[in-house]
Amino acid sequence: MAERVVLAYSGGLDTSVGIGWLKDATGKDVVALAIDVGQGGEDMDAIRQRALDCGAVESVVVDAKEEYANDYLVPAIKANALYQKRYPLVSALSRPLIAKHLVATARELGADTVAHGCTGKGNDQVRFEAAVAALAPELSSVAPVRDFALTRDKAIVYAQEHNLPIEQSKKSPYSIDQNVWGRAVETGFLEDPWNAPIEDLYTYSKDPATPREATEVTITFTEGVPTAIDGTPVTPLQAVQLLNTLAGDQGIGRIDIVEDRLVGIKSREVYESPAGLTLITAHEELENLTVERDVARYKRGVEAEWANLVYDGLWFSGLKRSLDAFIDETQRYVSGDVRLTLHAGTPTVTGRRSGQSLYDFDLATYDTGDTFDQSLAKGFIELWSLPSKISARRDAAQ
């Protein structure tokens, strides 16, 4: 049997042409692997058949939506994961999942190489190859666009010459990546960071400026995992899908950011993640109610490092695993309900409750009968400020 390479296949021009291009460049048979992470669009059966029509010796399709939600989105929610405090890792979270299935398919079918359609300028090449290296160091990784100079104009000519079943419609002015967690849009006129986004960019969210009635929603969490919406039990995937609709209809989840890429350049990106921003907003507020102060303060630094690691393609690193263990421990008591008003592009928390709440009304109230002993405060302040007082005396003596 000829040597094989497993290609992460999207069904688009570059990866479709990449099948034959890889065969020509490496002499290896190509297995196409398409992963359904809720990106929508074409039917996966059509994508499977297209890969075969483009020359793949085998075409594998994996429905990984539940796995993606349970094993990748749930940890992101627990970590309140926002790269640069704003971006909910829409693309970065799907790459290690795809890499995991690339490795599994390569091992199952006896391939010695995996491939992807990334350029040499973006983050995803690093995410795919770093994940493969961590999971299967014996495998090689190749990228036709990057390694074999498969430019778009060459791809179009190749598709025409070989009569590949790829529609050569007018090229979209944008580069788009999407999955159930959100949508990423770049290039075109967006490459000038002064240009404002236009409404045509968005599909996951409606215009937040359009007048409409607000939506109220209550999200239930169990140990940090969303388990019910308005009292109806849901899986994590169902929670994301439902909130994409509810929050998206209110224009929630739009992000316009100049982002620091791993490869050292800045890139202007526009994202949509209605469910992502809504769930993180609700989860953070429930943590405010149930997580003790010092743990919460420390966790904020861990969250930033977790987001950096995932963005940088190190999902399967030792540090990431260690941070996961800490984050999971912090979620022991993060159970309860958060009520939000979704309106005009903003998810606003209006209520929170939990059987594990650390909020003590008798201590917090300013009414008569509170149990907080204010007489203790004076001595506490004396001791708390003592180092500052001593150093101030020294400074004054200089």
TrEMBL record:
Where L-citrulline is bound, by residue? Answer: Y87, N123, R127, S175, E259, Y271
Which CDD domains would you find in this protein's record? ASS
According to the entry, every stretch annotated as the Arginosuccinate synthase C-terminal domain falls at: 174-390
Q: What biological processes does GO assign it?
A: argininosuccinate metabolic process; L-arginine biosynthetic process; urea cycle
- Which superkingdom does the taxonomy of this entry point to? Bacteria
Binding-site list for L-aspartate: T119, N123, D124
- Which N-terminal residues, if any, form the signal peptide? none
Q: Which GO terms describe its cellular component?
A: cytoplasm
Q: What EC numbers are recorded for this enzyme?
A: 6.3.4.5
- Give UniProt keywords alphabetically: Amino-acid biosynthesis, Arginine biosynthesis, ATP-binding, Cytoplasm, Ligase, Nucleotide-binding
Catalytic activity from the UniProt record: L-citrulline + L-aspartate + ATP = 2-(N(omega)-L-arginino)succinate + AMP + diphosphate + H(+)
Q: Pfam families from the entry?
A: Arginosuc_syn_C (PF20979), Arginosuc_synth (PF00764)
Residue positions binding ATP: A8, Y9, S10, G11, G12, L13, D14, T15, S16, G117
Q: In which pathway does it act?
A: Amino-acid biosynthesis; L-arginine biosynthesis; L-arginine from L-ornithine and carbamoyl phosphate: step 2/3
Gene Ontology molecular function, alphabetical: argininosuccinate synthase activity; ATP binding
Q: Where's the Arginosuccinate synthase-like N-terminal domain?
A: 4-165
UniProt lists the family membership as follows: Belongs to the argininosuccinate synthase family. Type 1 subfamily.
Q: How does it assemble?
A: Homotetramer.
Indicate what this protein is called per its UniProt record.
Argininosuccinate synthase
- Species source reads Mycetocola reblochoni
